[in-house]
């Protein structure tokens, strides 16, 4: 208390000057419309800048929540697209559309919690398992393209055989053509995979897009893979759309018709 009194006594003339300045400023603004409008305009500009900065900071802090919302929305849209594509196919074949129960593919969102890309036989771990409907032999993709295929699932997690695995074999084709081949990885460049067994009559140019062929129960037709980087007689080099060392958010694709198709194929073989 004594220090406060000492401070007021020591700076009383300066404090009195400041007080008189504030009173003078208030009277000027209050009695002159020009000064009042300038003051209000300046105050609005300052407060506007303050709230803009505050909103930017809040938006930055909410990025994780916003990102999760976008992932959920993308999952919903992918499932709707999958259903609509199947309905179009059914209409084209004059098959009756009954309900959503006819949906063949379902997308389940998730995240990669471990990613290998520097070994000859690479695997990933995702935070989705049996309780989410994820089991073995299911496609794993993201918004850019294919990532791999699940090979083992626990209750909450699944191991994924990466496309950067020398045992990986995926049916692929040239986009907008009927020319199919087999996609594999030679264990060298993590950004490049190889496409073999494309028919010789196919016209292949550098920059052509490669997508999944759909001739399996794992990947739907048309999932992006990459572009032709180099074409030789022995092998087509395909540059992946995905940066395999920078993966995070994924979708696992559930094929509801997989078992029925497999049972039919096995019965036919017998």
Oligomer kind: single chain
How far apart the termini lie comes to: 99 Å
Radius of gyration: 31 Å
Strand order, main sheet: write it out: 1-2-5-4-3-12
The helix/strand order is HHHHEEEEEEEEEEEEH
> How many DSSP helices?
5
Percentage of residues in DSSP E strands: 25-35%
| CATH topology assignment of the largest domain | Thrombin, subunit H
Number of domains: 3
Mean pLDDT: 80
Number of strands: 12
What kind of sheet is the major sheet? 6 strands, antiparallel, barrel
**Level of helix content?**
25-40%
Describe this structure in words.
The protein is of the alpha+beta class and 270 residues long. The protein has three domains: 2-61, no CATH class; 69-103; 108-269, Thrombin, subunit H, CATH 2.40.10. 37% of the residues lie in helices and 28% in strands. Strand 6 and strand 7 form a beta hairpin. Helix 2 crosses helix 3 (33-61). The longest helix is centred in the first third of the chain and has 30 residues, at 63-92. It starts with a helix and ends with a helix.
Defining key terms:
single chain, 270 residues, alpha+beta, Thrombin, subunit H, six-stranded antiparallel β-barrel, 5 helices, 12 strands, 37% helix
Describe the structure concisely for a colleague:
With 270 residues, this protein is an alpha+beta fold.
